[in-house]
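To the wet lab folks,

You asked to see what we're planning to order before we commit. Fair enough. Below is the target structure as tokens, and below that is the sequence we designed to fit it. If anything looks off to you, flag it before the synthesis order goes out.
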């Protein structure tokens, strides 16, 4: 069994939740989202995040706006829609339950 593949699958499972969480406070462009994820040690490459942002937008969870940049081309800023905020709230509750259950199981004394 390939441990790296299993670890990658675990990260992918929480990536959507993490992206929505990054955007709960303020709109951000892709590089900012990537930096936040990388600073949290969640390794993500651009080739993974762009399709995911597009899917979240197409699902009505995100919207975007173009903003001029002083240091290059215009930037696409993503933000949560009302549906996205409700979705994130639901995921947050599920994450807490799941995290508590996994912690309980993995920290049990044998």
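Sequence we intend to order:
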């Amino acid at each position: 069994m390939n441990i790296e593949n299993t670890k990658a699958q675990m990260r992918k499972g929480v990536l959507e939740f993490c992206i929505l969480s990054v955007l709960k406070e303020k709109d951000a462009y892709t590089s900012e989202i990537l930096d936040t994820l990388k600073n949290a040690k969640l390794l993500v490459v651009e080739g993974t995040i762009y399709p995911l942002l597009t899917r979240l937008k197409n699902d009505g969870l995100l919207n975007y706006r173009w903003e001029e940049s002083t240091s290059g081309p215009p930037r696409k800023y993503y933000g949560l829609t009302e549906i996205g905020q409700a979705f994130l709230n639901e995921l947050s509750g599920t994450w807490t339950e799941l995290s508590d259950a996994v912690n309980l199981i993995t920290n049990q004394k044998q």
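Structural context that might help your review: Strands lie at 28-29, 62-69, 72-80. The radius of gyration is 16 Å.

Thanks,
Computational group
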